[in-house]
Structure formats: C-alpha cells, structure tokens
Amino acid sequence: MSAYLSIEGIARRFRTPKGTNTVFEDLWFAMDKGEFACVIGHSGCGKTTVLNILSGLEEPDGGVVIMDGQAIDGPSLDRAVIFQSHALLPWKSVLGNVAYAVASRHKDWSREKVRAHAERFIEVVGLKGAEHKRPAELSGGMKQRVGIARALSIEPKMLLMDEPFSALDALTRGTLQDEVRRICVETGQTVFMITHDVDEAIYLADRIVLMTNGPQASIAEIVENPLPRDRRRLDLHKQPDFYALRNHLIDFLVERSRVLRDSPPAGYDRRRPPVVRPTLATEPVGALSPRRTAGG
Amino acid sequence: MGLPLRLRAALVSVLLLVVFLLAWQAGTAGFRGGGAGLPAGMDPEYAKLMGITASSSTSAMPSPGDVGKQLWALLSDPFYDKGPNDKGLGIQLAFSLGRVLLGYGGAVLVAIPLGFVIGMSPLMSRALDPFIQVLKPISPLAWMPLALYTIKDSAVSAVFVIFICSVWPMLLNTAFGVASVRREWLNVARTLEVGPLKRAFTIILPAAAPTILTGMRISIGIAWLVIVAAEMLVGGTGIGYFVWNEWNNLSITNVIIAILVIGVMGMILDQILAYVARLVTFPE
Ligand SMILES: Nc1ncnc2c1ncn2[C@@H]1O[C@H](COP(=O)(O)OP(=O)(O)O)[C@@H](O)[C@H]1O
Ligand SMILES: [Mg+2]
Where would I find the ABC transporter domain in this sequence (chain A) (predicted)? Predict the structure, then answer.
C-alpha cells in the first residue's frame, strides 16, 4: 500500500560559521488522502522547514517527498500554502488576490469564469461583500480568510498551513478553526498543518505528529486522535478522552520533547516512530506521570 | 479659529506673498524716485550725457508691477518666433521640456530594465556596482565637453546630459525596490507556478513601483535643474538660453520672469510624478 504523501528520509542542513546545523535528518512520515495531520513541536525544531520542503519552496539536502506517486521537485499548484503572515498582495483587492490564484491555475479560463470561481470561494470563507476591499482595510481574521480562500480556490491536492491562526485573537481563531474543519471534512481535503496550540491540534487533526526539539529533531511519536469525528469545538472538553490526549501533548511539550531527542527509547525506528492513542483508559487523567507508550 | 489647517496655511501663504511684493515694491521705488537718485547738484542734462539716467532706467531692479506687465505680455503671446534671439516664452519652454522628456524618457527605458536585472541578480548587482559608484557622483555638466566632442550636435548633447543625470536615481531605486520585494510575495507566485515574466510584471513591478516612482521623481527634479545650466552652455534655444540671453540684453525683468517660469514648470513636473506615485502606492 502506498501513501498519498510520503516523506522519505528527508534531511535539511544549514551551513553556519560555527559548523553545519542539521535541523533534521532521515525524517519519515506518510499521510493518506483526506487526512488532517498537525505537527507540534517547540519553536526552532524545524516544522516550517518541513512544510517548506513539502510545498517545494525549499529543497531537502537528502531524501525525497513523494506526492500522489510523483517526487516533489519545486512548488506546484497541487499543494497550496496558507502562510502564517497571510502573504496577500496588498495592491490587489480581495477578489484580485483570489482571482490571481484562480487565473494561475486555469490559464485558459475567461475573465468572467475566473471571477465567478473566485467569488464562489470568497463566499465559502464568508467574505461576500468585501470582494473589493484591499487587504489593508481588513482585520487580521479577514485577511487570513482571504488566504484560505486563495488556497482553496485552486482546489489543490493538499493544503499546507504554517501556524495559520497564531496571530489571531481567540474568538476569531475559533470561528476560523470551525470553518476550516467544516470545509476540509466536507471536501475530504488532505491537510498538513503546523500549530503550537494543543487545543487546535486536538480539534482539527486526525493524527498529531510530535517533533522533538532541535537541532537534529526527529519525530518522537505519532498520536492518533481518539476523539469522535463529529466532535465540536465548544464541547471538546466534555469528550471523555479529551484530557488524556491533552495531557499527553502538554507533557510532551513540557518534558519529553527534550528528553526524547537526547535519549531515544530502546528500539526507536526513525521510519516507524511509535504510534500512540491516549485515551481515558491508557492515561490516568490528572497527573503528568511517566507514561507507557504503545508500540507502533 | 474654526478654519481648517489647509485654509489657514493658504491665508498665511497669501499674506507672505503680499509682504514680499510690498517689500520688493518699496525696495525698487528708491531707484526710480525721479532725479532723487542723481548726485546732488548735478544738472539733469549733464547726467543724461553721462548716461546715468539712461542706464539706470534699463538696468535698475524692476518693480513687481513691471514684471507683472511684462509677464502678461509674454504669456499673452507665448509662441511668436522672430528669429534666433527673439522667441516666445512658450517656444523656449517647449524646447526645454522636449529635451528633458527625451533625455528622461531614454533614462527610464534604460534604468528600469537594468534596475530590474541588478535587483534580481546578486551577481550583476556586484559586477555593476563599481561602475555605478564611479559614474554616479560625476556632475552631469562635466559630461558636456565629451558629449559635444563625440555627438557634435549641441541639442543632442543637452539631451544626453539630461539622460546621464536622470539615469542614476532611477537605476538605484529600481534595483533597490526590486531587490527588496517581500520574499512571501515571491513565494506566493512560486507556489502558484507563475512564470518568470509574469512574475516580473504582476508581483515585482507593482511591489517595487512606489520605490521606482520615488527614483523617477528625484530624477525629473535633477533633470529640470540641469537643463537650465546645460542650455546656458550650449545656447540656441530653451529656457536656460532665454535666461542667459536676457541677461546679455540686461533685461532683468525677463530674467525674473524666466526664473518664475522655471520654478512653476519644475513644480508641475514634480506634481505629475507625485500623482502617479499616489496611484501605484498601496497601503499595507
Ligand atoms: N535560511 C536559514 N538559514 C540558516 N538556518 C536556518 C534557516 N532557516 C531555518 N534555519 C534554522 O532551522 C531551524 C528550524 O527552523 P524552522 O523550521 O523555522 O523552525 P520552526 O518552524 O519549528 O520554529 C532553526 O534552528 C533555524 O535556525
Ligand atoms: Mg515556524
């Protein structure tokens, strides 16, 4: 069985005056079509670097990434990026920004067709009526909506998001999380997303990738989300397994992200990091206790 | 004082102008107080023989009224042409504008594409840097003898001098604007698989346009400064030549008028580019 997206032993090194900085090497991860994966790890561990390699904006210094049977060599309309800084073109209107992407995807389309298509996706993210505003006239949340509309409008095979909501206030972040989840579930979108917000990962992700601290970061664990698929953001905390999962993630960030880099567990295999599924049954809730990790 | 700032500023401007004109009027009135300017006891007939009154009436500082009258006369018939030394103000201005636009237009055509190349290629940027550093500080008028010698045509030489002085600010600003286009905008284009030519026109050009326009605005200012000096040197036609010629005629009135016209024209050129700059500026 071959995965939809397959990261196969990629490495990234930067040459610095003090020697080579190996951000990570021999990194393996695979995703199925329609899956939503979140990556969690401390700042500087190399999350953005991984995402840039997936987008094709950066090249790995070793290894390959295979997407839908083809090795990635450079950016592609198959993989849309939602940038943390939204990266809208400030001289274009909302419609202009989205239409630019649509016209790049469909070079043979007429102006009207491009416009209609762009307007449809502006409506999907709830920005109908703001089509002719410039980005400078929009709030942070609205700008990020335009970024999402632009990414969705090219109907990519995969969506790549780098901390898309981290610059937003909690309320706006919540509504945008709801919409992204709704759209992705409805359309079966494959998503790779970086976040540092544990609750965001719990709400959105099917699987959560835990990266150890850098340099020489690795994937410590892959956490399967035990929460039901029809979970809702506002009563997430009422799910029986919520705290087990949350504690597991926080415990990782607080303690194990450092420990696991320096001393990987016995039998650790970079190609098949341990897969865990923290539930009420496996994790005694309440204490940040030493844990058992189910083998992969 | 409920008046808006703009209106108050305009009032102060008018007031300053009136004060200036009155002071001018008062200053020039002394020159022409009949025989009061003559040395005491001098017979007017004798004075006339000595040429004192004769010369004082032409070379004395004209009053604002004289200038106004003459300005009106020149502006009401700006395009007459009575031989090489007597052309309307409009014709002279048109010659100067023509040269500036030719030289400046040529500079735009060279500086903006070359600035793109320098801004996009670190190699070219470093390779061309020494040349630019040496050529940029040369006074445009220093090129004049060389231009006259190689081109042999004084009018074309003036255009060349305008070209050479306008090219640097535009070149450097374009290169800087292009080099500092935000990486994230370029990444947007890359992820959308936008080709290099389309990227240049749809991302880099609009992103760098405000910086490029700043350079163009600096350049047009320099070009207009230089054309007057260049035309004084090469002679023949143009507003600069007009100033020189009227000085030789000892017509201070016309010199003052020419100065005024040069100032107003320079302001108009600057405002045109300021307007274009506003069109391409985007808020962030
Ligand atoms: N262009 C670069 N040059 C040198 N080092 C870099 C560069 N980009 C990233 N790095 C290094 O790679 C590491 C990972 O960076 P990044 O992927 O941005 O981390 P994260 O997104 O997880 O915070 C950092 O330690 C950073 O110093
Ligand atoms: Mg990052």
Answer: 5-238
Instruction: Calculate the CA dihedral of residues B33, B37, B42, B43 and round it to 10 degrees.
Output: -40
Report ipTM for this prediction. Answer: 0.88
Instruction: Give residue-wise pLDDT tens across range A111-126.
Output: 999 999 999 999 988 8
| Cα B261 to Cα B89: distance, rounded to the nearest angstrom | 9
Sign of the torsion angle spanned by Cα atoms B191, B195, B199, B200: positive
Helix (H) or strand (E) holding A64: strand A62-67
Does any CB of chain B come closer than 8 Å to the CB of residue A130? no
Q: Which of residues 152 through 171 in chain A touch B, CB cutoff 8 A?
A: 154
Query: Quick check: B187 and A87 CB within 8 A?
Result: yes
Task: Check B193 against A76: CB less than 8 A apart.
Answer: yes
Q: List the one residue out of B237, B256, B228 whose CA is nearest residue B86.
A: B237
Condensed to tens digits (0 to 9), the pLDDT of residues A200-217 reads 999 999 999 999 997 899
Distance from CA of B127 to the nearest CA of A (A): 25
CA of A43 to the centre of ligand 2 (A): 7
What's phi and psi for A82, nearest 5 deg?
-105, 115
Closest residue, chain A, to B202 (C-alpha) = A100
Please provide the size of chain A in residues.
Answer: 296
Report d(CA B279, CA B284) in Å as an integer.
14
- Best B187, B190, B191 member to test A by mutation, with max A CBs in 10 Å, is B191
